[in-house]
Amino acid sequence: MKNTVKKLVFVAFVALVSASFTNIEKETKEIKTDESKVVWKGYKVTGSHEGTIAIQSGNLVFEEDKLVGGEFVIDMTTINSTDLQGEYKGKLDGHLKSDDFFGVTNHPTASLVFKEVTASGKNAYTVSGDLTIKGKTNPITFVISIYGNKATTSLKVDRTKYGIEYKSGSFFDDLKDKAIYDEFDLVADLEF
After folding, report:
1. pTM of this prediction?
2. d(Cα 105, Cα 11) in Å, to the nearest integer?
3. What pairs with residue 180 in β-bridges?
4. What is the chain's pLDDT, residue by residue, as a tens digit (192 residues)?
């Protein structure tokens, strides 16, 4: 009986010690929204437009200093152009917020949720996630780089997957030089 109790105590002790060394805690680091920046760039046959959009909230999740997750909420009501001024800026900003594009009255936020993160190089990770715009969710894959308390990434988004078909050559014929390309870019510089 004494041997059995000693064995049970020993097994419990070994299990406790092993668990204390293998229990890896995840650390969630909140994005500093005021110091982070997201730039968008859209393309048309005759040129391009660009601007900014604000991060409402976000975080990156680390395990032993390795990125393992993250999620972001984007405030779509803040979308604006930075390459125009005056009346033209007002018209473009209003049009981007309208139902032709992002419909911010009914869809004031967009979101990105990391589903799988794989190390792809020094300080670089390939992320597969779900991007939701205008209430539609689609998978997206991109690379994010982490340096200290900063991260950078660039995403190419096909707007037609989110029901944004305005002047898309994929849906309308004879647009000629009025066509707007389906893909737009998002470039994010993040601090946490």
Report:
1. 0.85
2. 61
3. 44, 168
4. 555 545 545 544 555 555 445 567 999 999 999 999 999 999 999 999 999 999 999 999 999 999 999 999 999 999 999 999 999 999 999 999 999 999 999 999 999 999 999 999 999 999 999 999 999 999 999 999 999 999 999 999 999 999 999 999 888 888 888 899 999 999 999 999
Structure tokens at 31: 């994005």
Q: Pinpoint the alpha helices (H) of the chain.
A: 2-22, 86-97
Task: Pull the structure tokens for residue 170.
Answer: 């994929």
Instruction: Residue count of the chain, please give it.
Output: 192
C-alpha span between 116 and 73 (Å, rounded):
18
Strands (E) in the chain, as ranges, are 26-30, 37-44, 47-63, 66-81, 109-121, 124-133, 136-147, 150-158, 180-191
Both structure tokens of 18: 């092993």
Tokens for 40?
Answer: 């968008």
